[in-house]
């Protein structure tokens, strides 16, 4: 659906994107991550045809984004970070207007408006002026215009930025639903949202792609240690930490500071602990043996992958 090959984009003498290549296949939901100024938005704007590449090729649904720009755009739905809404129009009037400027005939517009309003759950606001909507419902209106013309590809730049937590959850659910019938490329600074929605992530830093994989695979590749979540009952925390730290394959042991684990430990009467251990040295087996030998109760022993935040920081921080 989306193919980017050796894409460069310069602003005057300054390179913003340097030799970027990737492909997003039909039906994929891909997160596109990068710090401010990394080239993320520039890349997305070039995919949509808004900015031409300095060099390289971009195709969408088989159409070159420069040579066949209009054909490529017909297959794209775009939600920019700041959605260009007309505040003095009602939701229905705005969608009708967007359909006309996309070249849709009135019959098609009428059929689609009802469907997209229902899809993004704007039924109670279809006759409300956009200027009177909350930020979350304006965002839904932006999503509605992006899917109005039944595109193959959806490109969303920061779709959950600036909306309240309830709307974030609802927007996440909506995006997941859209992924069932569209190919999605989504940028976001809210990394837990990307983890919840996107099975695959691209990470761009200083204009270059530095990672392209599933978050779990990136965790395995980048982590020099094995992180293990352990629940233990039958002794004091200081004693447990002291004894586990003596295991040769263990690097560090500490109390688990996550609120949900602390609460669960109190309810079920166990101590939540995090162990950092050397990889490929049977750490899990050694920890379990030590717990049994000391007569403690083992409630859980679970490997923990790196979080997407940790992956992102490791890939994008200056070395």
Entry summary:
The chain is of the alpha/beta class.
List the helices and strands and how they pair.
Layout: E1 2-11, E2 14-24, E3 29-33, H1 40-47, E4 55-60, E5 63-64, H2 69-74, E6 76-79, H3 91-101, H4 106-119, H5 135-147, E7 153-157, H6 165-178, E8 183-187, H7 191-197, E9 200-205, E10 208-213, H8 215-222, E11 225-233, H9 237-244, E12 250-255, H10 259-268, E13 271-278, H11 283-293, E14 297-304, H12 308-316
Parallel strand pairs: 3-8, 3-9, 6-7, 7-8
Antiparallel strand pairs: 1-2, 1-4, 4-5, 9-10, 11-13, 11-14, 12-13
Helix pairs in contact: 3-4, 4-5
The backbone outline, from C-alpha atoms, is: elongated
Q: State the secondary-structure class.
A: alpha/beta
SSE order: EEEHEEHEHHHEHEHEEHEHEHEHEH
Number of strands: 14
* Helical segment count: 12
Average pLDDT figure: 90
How many domains? The number is: 2
Question: Sheet bearing the most strands, described?
Answer: 6 strands, mixed
Task: Determine the CATH topology of the largest domain.
Answer: Rossmann fold
Rounded to an integer in angstroms, the radius of gyration calculated over CA atoms is 24 Å
- CATH arch. level architecture of the largest domain: 3-Layer(aba) Sandwich
CATH class bucket of the largest domain = Alpha Beta
Terminal-residue CA separation: 35 Å
Give the spatial strand order of the biggest sheet.
Answer: 6-7-8-3-9-10
- Unreliable stretches: none
What is the CATH superfamily label of the largest domain? P-loop containing nucleotide triphosphate hydrolases
Helix fraction by DSSP (H/I, runs of at least 4): 25-40%
Estimate what percentage of residues fall within beta strands.
25-35%
């Amino acid at each position: 659906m989306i193919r980017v090959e050796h894409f460069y984009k310069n602003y005057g003498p300054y390179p913003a994107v340097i030799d970027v290549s990737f492909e997003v296949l039909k039906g994929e939901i891909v997160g596109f991550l990068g710090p401010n100024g990394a080239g993320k938005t520039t890349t997305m704007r070039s995919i949509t045809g808004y900015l031409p590449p300095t060099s390289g090729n971009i195709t969408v649904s088989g159409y070159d984004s420069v040579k066949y720009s209009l054909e490529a755009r017909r297959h794209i739905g775009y939600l920019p970070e700041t959605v260009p809404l007309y505040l003095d129009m009602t939701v229905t009037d705005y969608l009708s207007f967007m359909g006309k400027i996309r070249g849709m005939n009135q019959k098609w517009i009428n059929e689609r408006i009802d469907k997209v309003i229902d899809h993004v759950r704007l039924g109670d606001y279809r006759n409300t002026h956009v200027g009177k909507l909350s930020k979350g419902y304006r965002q839904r209106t932006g999503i509605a215009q992006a899917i109005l013309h039944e595109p193959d590809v959806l490109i969303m730049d920061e779709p959950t930025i600036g909306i309240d937590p309830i709307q974030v959850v609802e927007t996440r659910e909506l995006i997941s639903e859209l992924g069932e019938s569209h190919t999605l490329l989504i940028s976001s600074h809210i990394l837990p949202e990307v983890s919840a929605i996107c099975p695959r992530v691209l990470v761009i830093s200083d204009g270059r792609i530095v990672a392209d994989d599933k978050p779990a695979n990136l965790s395995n590749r980048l982590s020099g240690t094995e992180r293990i979540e352990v629940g233990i009952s039958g002794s004091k925390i200081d004693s447990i930490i002291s004894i586990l730290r003596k295991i040769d394959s263990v690097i560090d042991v500490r109390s688990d500071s996550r609120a949900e684990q602390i609460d669960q430990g109190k309810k079920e009467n166990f101590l939540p602990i995090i162990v950092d251990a050397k990889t490929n040295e049977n750490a899990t087996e050694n920890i379990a043996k030590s717990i049994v030998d000391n007569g403690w109760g083992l409630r859980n022993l679970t490997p923990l992958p790196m979080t997407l935040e940790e992956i992102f920081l490791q890939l994008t921080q200056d070395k």
